[in-house]
Design goal:
alpha/beta, Rossmann fold, 7-stranded mixed sheet, two-stranded antiparallel ribbon, 7 helices, 11 strands, 30% helix, glutamine amidotransferase, transferase activity, Class_I_gatase-like, transferase
């Protein structure tokens, strides 16, 4: 199964050399599930020609806000709506989670409660899962088609499903602890409050449930779907 990675941001240069860029992280996360990958750097305006060019689409995180004025955001939203109409499955992570919601009628904002950083617990329909987080923006208003499947006190809309068309997660299952530590040392200084970073550092090393989310992403992509006409 061919998964197209829509890369919406770039990992910091001083971290990507050792730990890889975002597509590398997702390839590691989903290793063993039988996928092949093709990357499109949509942040640099490299878009697929058609929503059917891959069997599914994975939208990465980004340092950009979904509500900001960047050239790649309007065509990405249009692509999301076409893929949704054609029932081509999409998975969105962090910014990907947010931009799918925004494209389908939801609202994304800079959250007044501040940042969520490092190992964070989420209630996935009664199951507590711990994943690395790195975000201030949140989905604050849901599209009509979205159903909440994970939340916590800080992030009410932490994971969403849109029937068999999209599965999105605010946290970063692809981020390992060393990458979060690197983000705190590079992008965090002067941006994320020191007390938040200290609390995150104290939790680094907590057992993460990234393999569970990896399985859920794989199961979502592989779910049998009815054939739909090309848009």
């Amino acid at each position: 199964m061919l998964i197209g990675i829509l890369q919406t941001g770039l990992a910091p240069d001083n971290l990507s050399g050792e730990m890889g860029d975002y597509p590398d992280m997702f390839a590691r996360l989903l290793d063993g599930h039988g996928f092949t990958f093709r990357t499109y750097r949509v942040v640099d305006m490299e878009f697929p020609a058609d929503v059917q060019d891959c069997d599914g689409w994975l939208l990465t995180g980004s340092r950009h806000g979904a509500y900001e004025d960047h050239p790649f955001i309007p065509p990405l939203e249009a692509f999301i709506r076409r893929a949704y109409a054609a029932h081509v499955p999409m998975v969105g992570i962090c910014f990907g989670h947010q931009i799918i919601a925004q494209a389908l009628g939801g609202k994304v904002e800079k959250y007044k409660g501040g940042w969520s950083v490092g190992p964070t617990d989420y209630d996935f329909d009664g199951e507590t899962l711990t994943l690395n987080a790195w975000h201030q923006d949140q989905v604050t208003e849901l599209p009509d088609s979205a159903t909440v499947i994970a939340r916590n006190d800080f992030c009410e809309n932490a994971a969403l499903v849109y029937d068999d068309r999209a599965f999105t997660v605010q946290a970063h299952p692809e981020f390992r602890d060393e990458f979060v530590d690197g983000l705190m040392r590079t992008r965090g200084k002067g941006v994320v409050p020191e007390d938040r970073m200290e609390a995150a550092t104290a939790r680094l090393g907590t057992k993460l449930d990234a393999p569970t989310i990896s399985d859920r992403i794989a199961d979502f992509f592989k779910r049998p779907r009815a054939q739909h006409p090309r848009e």
